[in-house]
């Protein structure tokens, strides 16, 4: 079994942790890693539900020691994918149990939310793969399609990595 527990809760940069997990599960070369499989191997019960407390996108919690991730079924597939990656970040970084991605949490810029977003961005759009795609001349839309993320998420990732990039056209 490929359960990945040796790094759970250790102080590790989000990028390092995400890349370590991708390597551990043999997904470092995948454009779209199978996050549901990672969750399943970890023993996490992933549930798609129509409503989550506080109208959140997702929630990581433990019930009698059994990890559960709830994801809003009312969001787009790409939003759900980012939410699953985000909640896996909370799981691997031991952030605890509560509803996530509420308006108030974004407004307050809670450190755990920022950290989980960094983890999600790296596991879904690894810096090395973004750089590879840029060198191939892929547009923002093409990269978003390859990674299975929204156009907006891809734009945030490019901006956060410091790329001044014409996202509409490849010259």
UniProtKB/TrEMBL annotation:
It comes from the Bacteria. It holds the Pfam family Peptidase_M78. Residues 42-158 form the IrrE N-terminal-like domain. This is Transcriptional regulator.
């Amino acid at each position: 079994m490929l359960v990945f527990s040796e790094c759970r809760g250790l102080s590790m940069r989000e990028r390092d942790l995400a890349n370590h997990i991708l390597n551990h599960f043999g997904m470092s070369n995948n454009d779209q890693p199978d996050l549901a499989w990672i969750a399943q191997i970890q023993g996490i019960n992933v549930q798609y539900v129509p409503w989550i407390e506080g109208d959140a996108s997702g929630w990581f919690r433990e019930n009698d020691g059994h990890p559960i991730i709830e994801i809003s079924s009312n969001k787009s597939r790409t939003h759900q994918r980012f939410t699953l990656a985000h909640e896996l970040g909370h799981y691997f970084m031991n952030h605890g149990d509560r509803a996530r991605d509420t308006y108030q949490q974004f407004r307050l810029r809670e450190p755990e939310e920022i950290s989980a977003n960094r983890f999600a961005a790296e596991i879904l759009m690894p810096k090395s793969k973004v750089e590879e795609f840029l060198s191939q001349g892929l547009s923002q839309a093409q990269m978003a399609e390859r990674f299975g993320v929204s156009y907006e998420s891809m734009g945030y990732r490019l901006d956060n990595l410091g790329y001044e990039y014409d996202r509409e056209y490849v010259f």
